[in-house]
């Protein structure tokens, strides 16, 4: 499926998705609205304008992808209401519910709300998505095509789950990067040169992620495979897996709960 696309916002996520669409052959004619001008590396056949008023009057997109920051949405959205009724609106803005878009675009607008994450930049993202009642099967297929160009896609039936999705997979890459930072610092504290500690931490997390991707075993089983009875790994896990405050499970449960609450706050 090759569709005409109007991309509103071409920052890191929007740019990553555009690159994925082009690589997958999912994009036909593309117009990008980006106030800061064309990002580096855009294909030459992509038209970039700084204002919505500069969009060619005869351009009829199959999908309008809203990739601006949530706090910019009130200002941006009114310009695109003219496409409601003909185009699919695919939003990747955190915290903005479907009802918000229906209010600004009209009750008849076809909308899919999605939450991708930054590994989309290397084609390893995952997006959770939920459609409104107006999105046709063809439009839902188009949304899946656009999202799957940069990674996996999971559909959810209950929109309220997207707050927890945002907290887990949307913010999740930052948790992984923090893990690399903290492992490296811990290695340096144990006596390793900082550069070597960071090299070991990065390679370990990258390799473990690839092993997890390729393996048919669960994450729990892969952990057990590394853990020899009374060995070094078990000694470390006894610290990380302790119950209650200070244990990794408690810390991450509280972190994701806090991020979920913040996502709900952003919805207004």
Structure, described:
The chain has about 270 residues and is an alpha/beta fold. Helices cover about 45% and strands about 15% of the residues. It is built from 10 helices and 8 strands. It has an 8-stranded mixed sheet with strand order 3-2-1-4-5-6-7-8, with helices on both faces. α5 packs across α10 and α6 crosses α7. It is elongated.
List keywords for this structure.
268 residues; alpha/beta; eight-stranded mixed β-sheet; 10 helices; elongated
Multimer state: single chain
Q: What is the CA-atom radius of gyration, in angstroms?
A: 21 Å
Helix content: 40-55%
Could you state the order of secondary-structure elements as H and E? EHEEEHEHEEHEHHHHHH
In the sheet with the most strands, the strands line up as 3-2-1-4-5-6-7-8
**Outline, from the CA principal axes?**
elongated
Indicate the structural class: alpha/beta
Which consecutive residue ranges, at least 5 long each, have pLDDT under 50?
none
Q: How widely separated are the two ends?
A: 36 Å
By DSSP, the count of extended strands is 8
In round numbers, the mean pLDDT is 93
Q: What kind of sheet is the major sheet? A: 8 strands, mixed
Write the layout of secondary structure elements.
Elements: E1 3-8, H1 12-24, E2 27-33, E3 46-49, E4 63-66, H2 73-76, E5 88-91, H3 98-105, E6 110-115, E7 125-131, H4 137-148, E8 151-155, H5 161-170, H6 172-189, H7 194-214, H8 219-226, H9 232-240, H10 248-266
Parallel strand pairs: 1-2, 1-4, 2-3, 4-5, 5-6, 7-8
Antiparallel strand pairs: 6-7
């Amino acid at each position: 499926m090759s569709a005409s696309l109007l991309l509103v916002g071409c920052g890191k996520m929007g740019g990553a998705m555009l690159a994925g669409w082009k690589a997958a052959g999912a994009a036909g004619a593309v117009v990008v609205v980006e106030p800061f001008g064309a990002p580096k590396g855009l294909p030459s056949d992509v038209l970039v304008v700084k204002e919505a008023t500069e969009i060619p009057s005869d351009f009829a997109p199959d999908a309008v992808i809203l990739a601006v920051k949530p706090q910019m949405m009130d200002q941006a959205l009114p310009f695109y209401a003219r496409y409601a009724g003909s185009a699919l609106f695919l939003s990747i803005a955190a915290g903005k519910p479907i009802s918000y878009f229906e209010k600004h675009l009209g009750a008849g607008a076809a909308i899919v709300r999605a939450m991708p994450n930054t590994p989309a930049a290397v084609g390893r993202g995952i997006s959770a998505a939920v459609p409104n009642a107006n999105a046709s099967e063809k439009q839902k297929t188009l949304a899946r095509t656009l999202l799957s160009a940069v990674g996996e896609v999971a559909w959810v039936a209950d929109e309220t789950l997207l707050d927890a999705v945002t907290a887990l997979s949307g913010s999740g890459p930052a948790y992984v990067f923090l893990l690399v930072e903290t492992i490296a610092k811990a290695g340096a504290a144990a006596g390793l040169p900082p550069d070597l500690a960071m090299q070991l931490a990065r390679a370990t997390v990258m390799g473990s992620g690839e092993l997890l991707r390729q393996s048919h075993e669960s994450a729990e089983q892969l952990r057990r495979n590394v853990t020899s009875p009374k060995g070094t790994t078990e000694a470390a896990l006894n610290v990380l897996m302790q119950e209650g405050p200070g244990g990794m499970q408690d810390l991450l449960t509280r972190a994701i709960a806090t991020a979920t609450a913040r996502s709900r706050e952003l919805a207004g």
